[in-house]
# Entry
Amino acid sequence: MDPKPQDHQSPSSTPSQLRQVLVLRPPPVFTVHEQDFSSKFHILKAYDSPLPTHDFLQTHAQSVKAVLCSGIGPITADVIRDLPALELVVTASTGVNHIDMAECRRRGIAVTNTGDVFSDDVADAAVGLLIDVMRRITSGDRFVRGGRWATSGEYTLGSKLACKRVGIVGLGNIGSRVATRLKAMGCLVSYTSRQEKHTTPFTFYPNILQLAFNSDALVICCALTNETRHIINNKVMMALGKKGIIVNIARGAIINEVELVKCLVEGEIGGAGLDVFENEPNVPKELFELDNVVLLPHRTAFTQESFYNAAQILIGNLEAFFTNKPLLTLVPNEF
Amino acid sequence: MDPKPQDHQSPSSTPSQLRQVLVLRPPPVFTVHEQDFSSKFHILKAYDSPLPTHDFLQTHAQSVKAVLCSGIGPITADVIRDLPALELVVTASTGVNHIDMAECRRRGIAVTNTGDVFSDDVADAAVGLLIDVMRRITSGDRFVRGGRWATSGEYTLGSKLACKRVGIVGLGNIGSRVATRLKAMGCLVSYTSRQEKHTTPFTFYPNILQLAFNSDALVICCALTNETRHIINNKVMMALGKKGIIVNIARGAIINEVELVKCLVEGEIGGAGLDVFENEPNVPKELFELDNVVLLPHRTAFTQESFYNAAQILIGNLEAFFTNKPLLTLVPNEF
# Structure
């Protein structure tokens, strides 16, 4: 380790004392690889303290320069105000919608994410959800485990994937991986995005309504922003139609969940594969009764391999920060 | 229709009377599209008759030239003996292991299957099962529907697909489609087959044991023959290893099911996605307790689109037979 004093640690203290990292609520990646973090940094665990969060933050307010977070523990303007020395927010996620980016910008606080370390896994799970809903895999498993195969002549036919028109909402790191996979299955892929991507072979539609109208299934892969909140509403679902499938592996609030549940219950769309919800971990109970939906507990990034890789990126960003080196995965935060 | 007398129908009877098609047990494709069959052929429904099958066959023995079947109603040597006029067996399946091919060969009875009409759908479902087991989709759905997300901190990590070594057992119509799909997901595909296919980019292993030893997952895509019966045994599963996944969308008896259940229960392999079983519709009850298996009721070919296409092929073969035209999808049946 570099012995000369650094901006972020004074020479009078031991490095581990001053390499403080605040954790409000432990991200799963942190929990699984806690040993790796604890051996390199002094972890301040707000969630283990008997103090209320605000009081805990007050106690450490002057010293905390870095915080580690994820979607389960938002970094609000209030939290940021409680931490006047804060310089870095490291999130164990690709999305940053749980961080008050405007407040970070105003205060000059850097934000890093996990880059595209989860992209392949999320894309695989998106494709898995689409196959599952169209081919009734989870439904079939319930049928067998319920002992109905031997006693019931029932068989509901699924839908073929080949030649189906699948619309990708947001053709970024994840969306483009979903597109590649679906192309190999013979699907006809199109997309909508903030702007047309001229380097892809896929058909572009300038807005979500046109995409839905020309699709048999939609796969939501975009970030949650003010522009995308509730972008999938009743009108879009009506355009998608009664056989249409929606897969959401992005963020729950991109879909108007009340309208989604209504459309599913009333058969206005054909089915859904949902990894994310508006008010996690709460899932609308009406969905539990439906055989044409597959429900995941926000787990499409949860593999041993991506967790290991994500931990290395989180640690790498914290190491870089405490040794004044360039951050690995800085999130652009400008107007 | 050609007015001149044909080999398979005499001019003194109406065509529909003599275009008799025997059905012992109705294949699902037939049930779904029965109207199309009934409008073109005179269907003799053994399953609707109060007579025992043998007596029913005796009644129609002299006139039945064509039989329609599938895996749920085997065409045994006994059945064939009961039908001295039989010239054609049309099966609503790709596999023909439910037909006594030796007896058909001896009698000069032609056998047609459904060609590769189901191949894309079966390949999609195979990939869906692999993703499902590795990424714990059905398991996750149970977790959410069981109301455990809000109350349990539990999360078992899945396995990443990218860079996993997947071994295809049988690189035919279905196996090669599975390989293409998995390649798009970043899997490292290899295979074993009766002989090496020099036109594919995938690594060949000359036997199942070498393939298993060099694979993280096996996808069974071969036909059931005397050579492949129980080819997946305890030794192969030990070579695959404790994290290894098996997907079977071919025929149940390709796996030694007793040994598979034992390996799964004892944790000697990592999980399984099974569409087929040795004694369908009976599924070993021990599997119902396992969270790392996905169980389907032999449904990987069950889509509206492939059922429609299969019906057209079945009808096309029967039409060709009754008008003395070449059969569409004759199964080679020589030593």
Q: What stands out?
A: Chain B touches chain A through 52 residues (CB under 8 Å). Residues 304-322 of chain B form the longest helix (19 residues).
